[in-house]
């Protein structure tokens, strides 16, 4: 943990330094403030654009998530506008699985209401994340080490490996639909007649298989890039010192490839956490494969503000996991220079 | 520099908050619904034209109405994307969608949200010649909101080489499967007897509703606001499907069947009976192992006649359209006999005019037409409710749990009812 605290201490020192410098500069009105104005002119338009196209939808969605959705006015049979202050009602709907009861008050959401499916979707999504990322890292590492070795046609292998990753996920998913069909390729090859997407175990396995197949190359290539940055001299001197292959992997390869590995794991985890297209095309989220993103899209069909609350929860969840991962890897991705 | 940056950021954040405030707070009391008599060019929004009929419709209309030309705007071919496209345009109160295509199950929601105008008063339509079920599906709260222009009903496809006569009851259907051997690549104790669209998606709502309606059950009350599905009749209906998996007359694979998968299974010779839509007819008569070896019949029920769920589309006038008088004429045009007939001939779309089903020439060309009429005449619209998205979720989730044996029929119906009621109470 001492390694973690180092950059923080460094940063803190820098901040103190810059504050002091600024204090001195403002009195003189010299170079720094002119630079500052220049930076503001240059960055300003970008910031405004970012605020409009990134900030506005996010802030608006969060704002909406505290409002009611349109409800039916019994006297006219028409919907009212909704958009009234609802406090954290949309959030408790999801997190505590509370639904409006007939005749007022709340009750536990009945099965079939999307509200009752929130926690299941969360666990399914987290499950997919843990399982696919672990498998992908293990296979990806193996791929990368293979590709790292010099052999004829290595360039070709690298390109070939990247193809699954380059094809759009929805197309890949459709391909796997054909493969996992009861009369499909996989059953023909295995000589079975397994209903792959009609039961939760096989349906989840199908999604994991398709996802691993598609995105392992991405991880492999990132790791490969990391491997190529390691000087061969380190291995040679380790060999001279009598380290065996296993020790070289654990003591040299793994620590040195860690930054690349961290980027791969964090990117993939964030990707899987908002996975939508693959399970949607394969199973429509049935049979225990409904991710949070699928739940959001289903809710969007009728209730915009409640869906906004769910997206916000998803956003916070992903953000928290990203933070944990960054801490775990002790990887300062944004600014490697401080390491 | 740091201080200024922070000030600028705070300013930006303020702008963003202000923007979001006016975005969220806008609510003028304009609920639409008013009739105007505007005339002029207008837009007809419809799903992707897979049948190629739209250029014909546009040409015919524009020839007769040079001052009020129609522009056809095609959406995606996926129903959920069509729906969200319409929802977005309506929420923005967009005036450039004048006439919109409404799937039968969207009518109530659009009407209740004030997006489409009621077809009464100046905008009234004479619907006497139409199949009654199609008009019912276009009606919400006792008021007609849309003009049906194509229809669809479920049919039972059966193997004429295996079964002499089409079954009219569920028991006959199950008995007919005894000892029949199909290609046998799908499993179960009675491999490949019957299948419909039983994966967890909209098709399951269609199939479950058909079974429940056939047994005399209903799903929601007439006003669409409360559940009526927790009854013995509904249980009897759902049990036809649930027992199918238990006893093996529906193969386990059918839990993953949608339209295409079920059609493929029948086309490969793996099923004795298939529930599907009329479009399957021409496909099966094309490149399939059962070509010339199958017939069509109305769906069976517990004691005789079954009940099909109604499919199809209506056209409705947007509440934000500026040219509603022209739009109304266009609805009448879509319902005219000439267009209806040509939609069938050129696009294989089932007409909404009842008499066309008795046309001898058309019957010669479309062998399923008289059967389809029977199907549509006894068809029951899927729940007509402004909460349709939540109601169909409730049906799918709970019916699927029952089919998988994860829930009993009784519990599934109880949950279905609770979930529908909770949707009506605002979720």
From TrEMBL, chain A:
Belongs to the binding-protein-dependent transport system permease family. It is a multi-pass membrane protein. It comes from the Bacteria. Keywords: Membrane, Transmembrane, Transmembrane helix, Transport. It is found in: Cell membrane; Membrane. PANTHER family: GLUCOSE IMPORT SYSTEM PERMEASE PROTEIN GLCT (PTHR43759:SF1), TREHALOSE TRANSPORT SYSTEM PERMEASE PROTEIN SUGA (PTHR43759). The chain crosses the membrane at residues 39-59, 122-144, 156-179, 205-227, 248-270, 307-329. Its main location: membrane. Residues 14-23 have a biased composition (Basic residues). Residues 122-325 form the ABC transmembrane type-1 domain. Residues 1-31 are annotated as: Disordered. This is Sugar ABC transporter permease. Pfam families: BPD_transp_1 (PF00528).
């Amino acid at each position: 943990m001492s390694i973690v605290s180092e950059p923080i201490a460094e940063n803190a020192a820098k901040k103190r330094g810059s504050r002091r410098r600024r204090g001195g500069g403002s009195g003189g009105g010299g170079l720094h403030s002119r630079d500052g104005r220049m930076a503001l002119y240059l960055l300003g338009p970008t910031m405004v654009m970012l605020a409009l196209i990134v900030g506005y939808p996010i802030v608006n969605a969060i704002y909406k998530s505290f409002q009611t959705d349109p409800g039916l006015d019994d006297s006219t049979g028409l919907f009212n506008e909704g958009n009234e202050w609802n406090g954290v009602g949309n959030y408790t709907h999801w997190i505590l699985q509370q639904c409006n009861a007939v005749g007022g008050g709340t009750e536990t959401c009945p099965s079939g209401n999307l509200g009752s499916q929130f926690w299941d979707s969360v666990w399914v999504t987290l499950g997919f994340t843990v399982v696919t990322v672990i498998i992908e890292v293990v296979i990806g590492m193996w791929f990368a080490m293979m590709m790292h070795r010099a052999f004829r046609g290595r360039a070709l292998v690298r390109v070939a490996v990247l193809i699954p990753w380059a094809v759009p996920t929805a197309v890949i998913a459709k391909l796997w639909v054909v493969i996992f069909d009861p009369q499909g390729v996989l059953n023909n090859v295995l000589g079975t007649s397994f209903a792959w997407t009609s039961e939760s175990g096989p349906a989840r396995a199908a999604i994991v298989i398709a996802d691993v197949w598609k995105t392992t190359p991405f991880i492999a290539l990132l790791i490969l890039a990391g491997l190529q940055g390691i000087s061969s001299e380190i291995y040679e001197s380790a060999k001279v010192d009598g380290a065996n292959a296993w020790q070289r992997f654990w003591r040299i390869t793994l620590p040195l490839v860690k930054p690349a590995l961290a980027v791969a794991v964090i990117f993939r985890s964030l990707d899987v956490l908002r996975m939508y297209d693959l399970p949607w095309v394969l199973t429509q989220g049935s049979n225990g494969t409904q991710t949070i993103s699928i739940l959001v899209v289903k809710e969007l069909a009728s209730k915009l503000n409640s869906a906004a609350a769910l997206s916000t929860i998803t956003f916070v969840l992903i953000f928290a996991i990203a933070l944990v991962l960054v801490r775990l890897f002790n990887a300062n991705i944004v600014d490697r220079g401080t390491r | 520099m740091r201080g200024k940056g922070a000030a600028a950021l705070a300013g930006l954040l303020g702008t963003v908050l202000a923007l979001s405030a006016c975005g969220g707070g806008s609510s003028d009391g304009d609920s639409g619904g008013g009739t105007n008599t505007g005339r002029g060019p207008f837009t007809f929004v419809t799903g992707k034209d897979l049948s190629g009929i739209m250029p014909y419709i546009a040409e015919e209309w524009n020839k007769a109405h040079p001052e009020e030309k129609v522009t056809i705007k095609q959406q995606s071919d996926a129903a959920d994307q069509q729906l969200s496209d319409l929802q977005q345009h309506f929420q923005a109160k967009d005036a450039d969608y004048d006439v919109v295509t409404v799937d039968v199950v969207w009518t109530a929601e659009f009407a209740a949200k004030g997006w489409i105008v009621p077809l009464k008063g100046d905008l009234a339509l004479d619907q006497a010649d139409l199949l009654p079920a199609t008009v019912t599906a276009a009606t919400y709260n006792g008021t007609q909101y849309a003009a049906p222009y194509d229809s669809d009903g479920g049919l039972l496809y059966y193997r004429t080489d295996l079964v002499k006569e089409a079954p009219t009851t569920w028991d006959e259907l199950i008995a007919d499967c005894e000892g029949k051997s199909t290609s046998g690549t799908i499993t179960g104790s009675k491999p490949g007897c019957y299948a419909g669209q039983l994966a967890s998606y909209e098709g399951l709502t269609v199939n479950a509703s058909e079974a429940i309606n056939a047994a005399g059950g209903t799903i929601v009350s007439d006003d669409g606001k409360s559940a009526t599905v927790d009854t013995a009749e509904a249980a009897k209906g759902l049990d036809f499907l649930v027992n199918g998996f238990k006893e093996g007359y529906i193969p386990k694979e059918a839990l993953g069947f949608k339209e295409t998968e079920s059609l493929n299974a029948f086309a490969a010779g793996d099923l004795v009976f298939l529930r599907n839509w009329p479009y399957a007819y021409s496909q099966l008569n094309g490149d399939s192992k059962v070509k010339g070896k199958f017939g069509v019949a109305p769906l069976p029920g517990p004691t005789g006649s079954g009940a099909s769920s109604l499919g199809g589309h209506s056209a409705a006038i947007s509440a934000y359209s500026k040219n509603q008088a022209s739009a109304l004429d266009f609805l009448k045009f879509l319902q005219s006999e000439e267009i209806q007939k040509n939609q069938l001939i050129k696009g294989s779309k089932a007409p909404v005019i009842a008499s066309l089903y008795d046309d001898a020439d058309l019957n010669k060309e479309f062998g399923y037409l008289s059967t389809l009429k029977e199907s549509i005449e006894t068809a029951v619209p899927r729940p007509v409710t402004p909460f349709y998205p939540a109601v169909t979720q409730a049906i799918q989730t709970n019916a699927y749990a029952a089919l998988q044996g994860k829930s009993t029929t009784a519990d599934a119906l109880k949950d279905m009812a609770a979930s529908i009621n909770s949707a009506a109470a605002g979720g």
